[in-house]
Design a protein that fits this description.
Length: 361
């Protein structure tokens, strides 16, 4: 089965945004407080405090959306190899377990005890993946019905919970669930709150984001006109903004509100439409090769970014000197050091690409 390179390039772009955290643009903005240019870049490499959206906030929804968009291609490829639905579902359960375990493993790095936390990107996807898979075998209308039930049910659970402000940080339905649930696991100290406000139950609306991706993936395989993607994008963005500005539900990525599902999902439709139009419709693909190297090995990219940052920085300081990257000035040192780390990440992935080593779950 031919891969859809627009999906790989979009995924590579998303992973590049995540890996580019090593550029430490917020430190550069602090070193040059009068520069609007660095302030703009720093804002879009940071998560907003609560309501709203930056480019950095689109990493996790894009990754989740692309899991859904890739599912029709994955199922078609496995069916072409003669695998049964039962075998495919068993694989989906195994994949779900591995994603959850990998997310917990990465969040436990450097800790004295396993850090049982379930708000990591991989864990959130893993928790919802079996349900997504089952929807992938049902008629398209099931996806729309499931999306509506998820958004309406999640909103109702939050607004009926007895707290003064249903969407307030660490004083909401999801927070009190985590205070009970996360303390069922062994911990070095009792769980009281996630300092960022992130929640285990966000996997439910994250499944909504993956369902939007599933719808998009089906449209791609059916070669639907891009106008359909643009209409879906406009409808989702308008719906999310309407919920936000009417006060029914704010756009908050950290707790994955229904308004965030719609707003971010609409932006994902736009991103995918743009990559598909340039690469598949117009045929301009050579420029995207650096992104394809990353996007075709996204699990490896995710692990490299989490495990090799400190190793590369330490190696540079050992072999090049403590402040080798301050050759421009001290304020730019984190940027140039981060650029070298980012290049190191990409070269690892390029080495794997050349040898056809692709991590699959």
């Amino acid at each position: 089965m031919n891969r859809n390179q627009a999906l790989d390039a979009y995924r590579g772009f998303v992973m590049l945004l995540m890996m580019a955290e090593v550029l430490h643009l917020s430190k550069i903005a602090q070193a040059y407080p009068d520069s609007g240019f660095w302030a703009f870049l720093a804002f879009h490499q940071s998560h907003v405090a609560w309501e709203g959206c930056s480019l950095h906030d689109m990493i996790q929804p894009s990754f989740s959306f692309l899991v859904g968009a890739a599912l029709p291609y994955s199922v078609a490829a496995r069916m072409a190899r003669g695998e049964s639905e039962g075998k495919l579902f068993a694989h989906a359960l195994w994949r779900s377990f591995l994603l959850i375990a990998l997310g917990i493993f990465l969040r436990s790095s450097g800790r004295p005890l396993t850090n049982y936390t379930f708000e990591d990107t991989l864990t959130q996807i893993g928790l919802g993946y079996p349900f997504l898979f089952l929807l992938g075998w049902r008629p398209p209308k099931w996806a729309w019905v499931a999306l509506g039930v998820i958004l309406a049910g999640y909103w109702l659970a939050w607004v009926t919970y007895p707290v003064p402000e249903p969407w307030a940080k660490n004083n909401n339905f999801g927070h009190f669930f985590d205070v009970w649930f996360l303390n069922l696991f062994p911990r070095t100290q009792p769980f009281e709150a996630n300092r960022g406000g992130y929640l285990t139950l966000s996997f439910i609306p994250t499944l909504g984001t993956m369902i939007l991706g599933l719808i998009a993936g089906r449209w791609l395989r059916e070669e639907k006109h891009l106008r359909q993607f643009l209409l879906a994008a406009a409808g989702c963005i308008a719906g999310g903004l309407a919920l936000h500005f009417t006060g029914l539900c704010p756009i908050v990525k950290r707790v994955w509100t229904p308004a965030w599902v719609l707003f971010s999902g609409g932006l994902c439709f736009l991103f995918l439409a743009a990559f598909h139009w340039v690469m598949e419709t117009k045929g301009y693909k050579r420029w995207a090769f650096p992104l394809l190297v990353i996007g075709m090995n996204s699990i490896a990219a995710y692990m490299i970014a989490h495990l090799f940052d400190g190793f590369l920085v330490s190696s540079f300081k050992t072999h090049l000197g403590e402040h080798f990257f301050a050759f421009f000035d001290a304020g730019m040192e984190p940027f140039f050091q981060g650029a070298a780390v980012l290049l190191g990440f990409w070269l690892m992935l390029f080495w794997m690409y050349r040898r056809k080593i692709f991590l699959r779950i």
